[in-house]
Fold:
Amino acid sequence: MKKLILISLIGLITFSCTEDFLDKNKIGEQTTETFFQTDEHAILAANACYSHLWDYRYVSANFAFGNVIADDAVKGSEPGDMPAIADMENWNLNANNMMMGWKYPHMWRGILKCNQVIFNLDDVERPDMSEYIQKRAVAEAKFLRAYYYFDMVRTFGGMPIIDKPLQLEEIKKDRDSAKEVYEFILSDLIAAEAVLPLKSEYPDSEMGRATKGAAQAMLVKVYAYMASPGYSNMDFYDAQGWTNAKTWAEKLFASNEYTLYEGYFGDIFSQEGENGPESIFEIQFTDTGIDDTFTSNGNFTTVFTMPRGPWGWGLQQPTYDLYAAYEEGDTRREATIISSEAVIQNEIEHGAPETTNIIDDRTGLHSLKNYLWPDERPTFWRNSPVNERIIRLSDIYLLYAEACFHTGDEGNARDYVNMVRERARGGNEDVLPDVDASGPQLLEAIYNERRVELAMENHRFWDLNRWGLMEQEVKIDGYKVKASTTILYDEDDEGNPIIVGYQVEDAGDPVFKATNYNPAIHQLFPIPQNEIDISGWEGQQNPGY
Structure:
């Protein structure tokens, strides 16, 4: 399957001059007046809206925000590597943290490109452009503008709502409320959903573009966030959101566009499993063969998070607490987490030298969802071709289960949790029995199912935050970080020892507690100070920073 190659559209400024001979466009240069004319122009402009999704600073910041600052992972690697992530893990946050500076500007740049498309194509007569392409490009841009704004509002709170390209004198703008931003996001998603094609209506060569199902799934997420109990102190909180989340989830299910993948769970995250039957939205990556940090279209997260020594940098190591959250026999654990000893043996079996070792190993565990074995790795480490899974059907099944629980429909809540567990069971009726709980125990089962199903996919902090459970889980209870692995041996027919498995246990270290975490401050993150300084922004920094 050929992946969508994303091309950035450079915004151009046309200057006026009193001299006629200077008041000319450069030969061959595109301007906004000459560019948005044809189908090709519209497609290129829409492609540009996706470009910041695969910028390594944006996508690779996601694992720090989603996993490392919660109880599923720690920073890992050597202490001097990416100290900004260590500060996040320990909740020593300030407005100069590098990871804030990685994430924040790319959301705005993505919004700018979306605004260019919408401003120049929405309800604008373009006689040389097909109506289908014009409307689809606008719908893609509205979906992506909503996506960027959603990530921004949940990270930094209310932000200026900017719905068109701004002139220089318009740049300074105060913050709109989070409620207003959420309402803006919903309006964009509803408009996009009405126009976007179904996944099945795209040819393989266009796979990865926003779809009707992606817009429906985002509406489920947005409404679920607005209704979540952890946000009851926020101005956007609306318990009615659970009913709306149910409605949009049921529209998604009724389309019959998506089904849970029925094979081995780990295959979902392989290159062969990209854009599979349960994939609703993925960031598309490919090996462009370019050895450049900023122009390659590969997934940087792979080399960031693979074990340090064999190939990667060793960041985002899973915790023993996450490992222990899985029930015995749950094959998702072995498809999500691998021990250091198993890594070494597998690396050697895949052609690595016998001296292979892992250094700066903090937990003894590593993530498999972005892993490439030696024979799969690109020539240039910046070019991992494996897509980043953003929304899967199981994610929406479990949000739907939450919505059903909160609207008094416990029967459907159990059914949808058990659909996810049935797939994980893989036909083995001796493991993962159906959930039959009710009341608070049912809600707890839904929460835990989200944790083990979506582990290392950058959901954990956001879930704990919206549930109002961050303080309990990371500060009061704390979590076990380090694992201890025992290699299990047997003998072959000739009496030689062979490895038959690995037993992972608690290493016995003290429970880690994020004592600096403060729920009064840390529901939101600090806006980068340098962004405030260079923009002369009139808005206020988030409280506590």
Observations:
- Confidence is low (pLDDT under 50) at residues 1-23.
- Residues 210-284+387-473 form a domain with the Serine Threonine Protein Phosphatase 5, Tetratricopeptide repeat fold (CATH 1.25.40.390).
- The chain is about 40% helix and 10% strand.
- Strands lie at 73-76, 279-283, 315-318, 337-339, 365-367, 388-392, 483-491, 497-506.
